[in-house]
Amino acid sequence: MTNIPHVVILGGGFGGLSAANELRNSLQSSQVKITVIDKKDWFMVGFAKLWIINGTRTFENSIGSLNELSKKEIDFIKDEILSINLKNKNVKTKSQNISFDFLIISMGAVLAPQKIPGLQENGFNLYDHKQLSKIHDRLEKMKSGKIAITIMGMPYKCPPAPFEASLLIDSMLRKRGIRDSVQIDFYSPAPITLPAAGPEVSKQILEMVNSEKIVFHNSSKIKSVESKKLIFENSEADFDLLLAIPPHIAPKVIYDSGLAKEPGFIPIDRDCKTPFENIFAVGDVTSLTVAENMAVPKAGIFAEGEGITVAKNIISKIQSKEESILFDGKGGCFIESGRDTASVIEVDMFSNPKPSTSLTEATSDNLSKKVEFEKERMSKWL
Ligand SMILES: Cc1cc2nc3c(=O)[nH]c(=O)nc-3n(C[C@H](O)[C@H](O)[C@H](O)COP(=O)(O)OP(=O)(O)OC[C@H]3O[C@@H](n4cnc5c(N)ncnc54)[C@H](O)[C@@H]3O)c2cc1C
Fold first, then answer.
1. Which of 9, 31, 210, 277 would be a feasible disulfide site paired with 27, CB 3.0-4.6 Å?
2. How far apart are CA 213 and CA 194, in angstroms?
3. What is the predicted pLDDT for the residue at 2?
4. Domain ranges, ordered by start, for the chain
């Protein structure tokens, strides 16, 4: 057993990669051993999925390899995590047992389409990377009919993304000259478009989608899906193509370890600590309550901020410093208009006396910043 502290990071997404890089940028391999474990060996920025749907990207052109981490002396293990032993401080994967001094759990949220009867047989999962090119093909072949974009559970990743998807699909159909023959309906269980962003920004998002003749149906709680039919608690609706955002849950390992109760996420505070010494959780796998009925949204920018917070606190501990910082809750999410511009939803989750959110104007400069956001992460993390 070496006396170099070992930081094990479960999941190589936004939270895991930001933490691994922050640690390695401050400490050399003689000061800390870093291991990232993920069942897949690639990383993709979430919003690139929408570019695969609208045909401006391919999957292969949108991913970075996690094997690149080795160049920075960050060990990468491609394997499935099967269990976490919180007391003995080790993690079991399919092929090995790995012990740690510090653990960062950044395993994200799992899409659970099986929770909605009939969904998998009758609709597409808008967030599943394996279904994106099929969705693109269906949209390309469509000549007329009804598209239903349906949020089937809260919370879900990147609250503005399904609205952005509806605007990009609107744009695709407009360019093909068939928009007037296709109806786009947007169904959400929430009373307003973006509860996490508050009523003012929600109103602006509603105006944005309405201006493109996308019809928003609020308080539509899904029960099940049949062939070409959505069954809500209080109504029904027809569709020809269903693009669903299924309920999100935590990975099974998290429920097995007792860190969260099904179907919830790991409760954390701004220090991202779990009740177990030197075991932290960040990103979509967590739930960080801000105010009554309000939590930090599931978004890469927040997973990244939490990952950096935890890494900085681990660095302080390794260097025997007293300092520790809290996650600041600040971030921004892009929303593309489908007209070669984008707006940014700017968020400060812990501003006083309540979270503040605002929506910027849609500009081509913001769209360039969105492209840059992806490039920057790919180049600094991998
Ligand atoms: C269409 C779309 C658009 C989006 N747009 C934005 C945006 O504009 N801005 C923004 O900030 N966010 C956006 N997001 C959200 C963002 O992608 C997520 O919030 C972010 O990826 C969360 O980071 P994370 O590190 O918590 O989890 P993830 O990035 O999901 O990483 C978790 C990792 O853990 C691994 N893992 C899980 N279970 C296991 C296991 N048992 N064994 C091994 N590995 C495991 C997974 O393979 C995964 O790589 C978007 C998401 C989507 C789907």
1. 31
2. 18
3. 53
4. 6-109+250-327, 113-247
